[in-house]
């Protein structure tokens, strides 16, 4: 089983909206499933070795196994209990969905005072990682636990004319699959491309900036190399449309200004401006100065107005 298969399944579970839970099981099973979740009844995860199928073990009066797989880009659930059927899910399935959603994002179905060691153990099983060894090492005759590995995460913004992608690095290397220690706020950017469309990723990036700011360092990667930058939520940039007239041609450009300093179109990407002189990037809050540019672009590029931003419009 490949990491991308596992990530696709986990990505679909994370995208499973809380309201959708009420549509896959009768009300009494949904309520009992929430009760099982609060009581930590899900005790173990296991992946089948040859295919991307997740088995969740839920322990109540009896112990049952919930099977979760992807069928046709959709999640499919089954359980060995008498209450489950092809037409209706049971409390064990509901408990499993809610537990996994909370493991992937602690703000989902949040409950205070959870056992952190139990949570970390379930996360490792969920990501198919080996359990941590409790064996100590010897140093100068004394028994000590191994020093924890230092985890340094960074967010890489790939930019051409637009922001092409948002990726996560761990200790300088791109993170291509989930692992249990990855901060929950970064996991949304580790999704494989097919299961996480570009616009959804950009929306998630905007949400991340609003909530976490510079919690993790940012790197800007362009064809000219790589630069460390910081997010600046305070700066206010003015926008304007510039006309340059030449014999037989007029070029219309988008510009930004901070105080009296000009930021050219090459450093504008959608709703973001990259101020390389200051080493910062910001969200463009007021785009009213580009109204004329947008109107001209709609005339000359009627089928690709947004795809062409921020390229100059020349006629």
Key terms:
alpha+beta, eight-stranded mixed β-sheet
Structure description:
This protein has 6 helices and 18 strands. It is of the alpha+beta class. β8 (163-170) and β9 (173-174) form a beta hairpin. α2 packs across α3 (91-104). It is elongated and about 80 Å long. The termini are far apart.
Strand content of the residues, in percent? 25-35%
Provide a count of the helices: 6
Class derived from helix and strand content: alpha+beta
Instruction: Estimate percent helicity.
Output: 10-25%
Q: Order of strands across the biggest sheet?
A: 9-8-7-10-11-17-16-15
What shape does the CA trace take?
Answer: elongated
Mean pLDDT: 81
Number of strands: 18
Main beta sheet? 8 strands, mixed
Could you tell me how far the N terminus lies from the C terminus, measured between alpha carbons in angstroms?
Answer: 54 Å
Helix/strand order: HHEEEEHHEEEEEHEEEEEEEEHE
Rg measurement, Å:
25 Å
In the predicted model, the low-confidence regions spanning at least 5 consecutive residues are 133-139, 305-311
Secondary structure topology:
Blueprint (H helix, E strand, L loop, with lengths): L2 H12 L12 H12 L3 E6 L6 E6 L3 E9 L2 E6 L11 H14 L11 H11 L10 E3 L2 E3 L8 E7 L3 E8 L2 E2 L23 H15 L5 E5 L2 E7 L6 E9 L2 E10 L2 E3 L4 E2 L2 E4 L4 E4 L7 H10 L12 E2 L1
Helix pairs in contact: 2-3
Provide a quick synopsis of the model.
The chain has 315 residues and is of the alpha+beta class.
